[in-house]
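Handout for the seminar on molecular recognition.
Each group receives one record of this type.
Step one: identify the two inputs.
Step two: read the structure output and locate the region that could contact nicotinamide-adenine-dinucleotide.
Step three: write two sentences on what you found, then compare them with the reference statements printed after the record.
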Amino acid sequence: MDKVLDGQIALITGASSGIGAGVSKSLAAAGATVIVNYPVAGTKEAAQAVLDEITSAGGKGIIAQCDVSKEDEVTKLFADIVAQFGTLDILVNNAGLQRDAKFEDMTLEQWNTVIDVNLTGQFLCARAAIREFLRRGPRPEVSSATGKIICMSSVHEQIPWAGHVNYAASKGAIKMLMQSLAQEYGDRQIRVNSICPGAIQTPINKDAWSTTQAYNSLMTLIPYNRIGKPQDIGNLAVFLASDQSDYITGASIFIDGGMTVLESFSDNG
Ligand code: NAD
C-alpha cells in the first residue's frame, strides 16, 4: 500500500476491537502513527494486541485509555497526544455501543448510556480535535487539509431500527453533527465526513452472524451476499483521511453491500 498518510498522527477511538481495530491497522499500514484508544482497564490487553500487530507489521503507534463520554478524560487524552506527538491530524470518532430494548421497556439508563458514548463522545472528541486543528493551523507538508474528522455512523442514520431506538437516534444525530461541522469549518480546510457501515463482522452484532441460521437471515438484507469486514471500513477510512478525498467534506458514505438500496429491509427487521 502507498504510504499516503506518512507523517500524520491519527486517533482512533474504541480501537481495541472490531471496526476501530481494523481502521487502526489500515491507517498504520498507510503510514500514520496511530493512537489506539480503549475505554477501561479491562480492554487494555486487547488494545495492546492490536498495537502489537501494527508494530510487527512495521507500523507505529501507542495505546491510550480514555472513556470518550467523560470530558476530563478526553481533555487529558488530547493534551497527552499533543505533548507526545506535537499535534493530531486525523480523528476517527469510532467508539460506540448498543443497549437494545423494546421502546416501552427502555430505561433512561439505556437511553443515556448510548447517547453519552455514541453522540456526546463524538462531540467531545470532535471539539478537542477542532480546537487542536485551529491552534496548529495548516500542515501542507503532510496534507492539503488542516485536519480530518471521520465519524463512524451507521446505515441506521437513514434506516429506522425498531427495538434499537436509542442507537438509531444517536446515529441520526451524528449525521447532523458531521454536516454542521463540515459547514462551520470548511473555510478553515477542516474536512468532516461519516462512514455508514451496514453489517460488519464484529463483537457488537455477534448475534447476527455467529450461527448459520442468523447468518443466512442476515444475507437476505445484503444484496452483495457477504458480511462486511473491518478491513472494508479500514480501506475507506484511509481514503477519507488522505488527500485522495481532498474535495469530500460533509458526506455520509454508505459501505453496506447494498443494504440501503434493498427495498425489503423492513420485511426482515
Ligand atoms: P465493537 O463493540 O467491537 O467496538 C466498539 C468499541 O467501542 C469497543 O472497542 C469498545 O471498547 C469501545 N467503547 C465503548 N464505549 C467506549 C467509551 N466510553 N470510550 C471509548 N471507547 C468505548 O463494535 P464495532 O462494530 O467495531 O463498532 C464500532 C463503531 O461502528 C460503533 O460506533 C458502531 O456503532 C459502528 N457500527 C458498527 C456496525 C457493525 O455492523 N459492526 C455497523 C454500523 C456502525
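Reference statements: Residues 13-14, 16-20, 37-39, 43, 67-69, 94-97, 117, 121, 152, 154, 197, 199-200, 202-205 surround nicotinamide-adenine-dinucleotide (CB under 6 Å). Residues 9-202+229-262 form a domain with the Rossmann fold fold (CATH 3.40.50.720).
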